Amino acid sequence: MNCKLKFMSESTVLRHIVMFGFKSSITLAQVQQVVVRFSSLKTQVPGISAFEWGENNSPEKLTQCHTHCFTLSFDSTEARDAYLSHPVHEAFAQWVGHWIETVTVLDYWAKETA
User: Fold this and answer.
1) pLDDT average, residue stretch 19-38
2) Which residue has the higher pLDDT, 2 or 58?
3) How far is residue 20's CA from residue 54's CA, in Å, rounded to a whole number?
4) In sequence order, what are the beta bridge partners of 18?
5) What is the largest CA-CA distance in the chain?
6) Are the beta carbons of 66 and 20 closer than 8 angstroms?
């Protein structure tokens, strides 16, 4: 009798989550510039298989001052690592830095319950 249960399926998607908290001096137009420029990385940096973003609307008040979340998906660790060191990504990170008060980055292999 095989009693081993499978709780998680194997994943082939690496998620790269980036959360920004902007400085109070940033304008809405500047936030929109950040969103547009960050979104454009999908077409400029090879290996990004998906990109999405959104603005916080949680009622829980646990944001740690983050207001915007960006999710990039990759098919491999190598693709993610190439993105991190890509000159377009590095230029974006330097450009956006003066508007950012807080940033959190978390990477994980997406899993689904069986």
Assistant:
1) 96
2) 58
3) 11
4) 70, 105
5) 64
6) yes
> Which pLDDT tens digit goes with each residue over 30-71?
999 999 999 999 999 999 999 999 999 888 988 888 999 999
Helix H or strand E segment including 107: strand 100-109
Question: In Å, what is the CA distance from 67 to each residue of 30, 77, 91, 93?
Answer: 14, 27, 22, 17
Q: What is the dihedral of CA 55, 58, 61, 67, to 10 degrees?
A: -10
Contact present, 105 and 17 (Cβ < 8 Å): yes
Give the predicted TM-score (pTM) of the model: 0.85
The structure tokens listed for 16 are 């790269």
Binning pLDDT at 50, 70 and 90, where does residue 10 land? low
CA distances for 50 relative to 29, 42, 47, 72, 98, angstroms? 25, 7, 9, 6, 26
**Per-residue DSSP letter, 76:** S
Residue 7: pLDDT above 60? no
Residue 43 backbone phi and psi in degrees, to 5: -90, -10
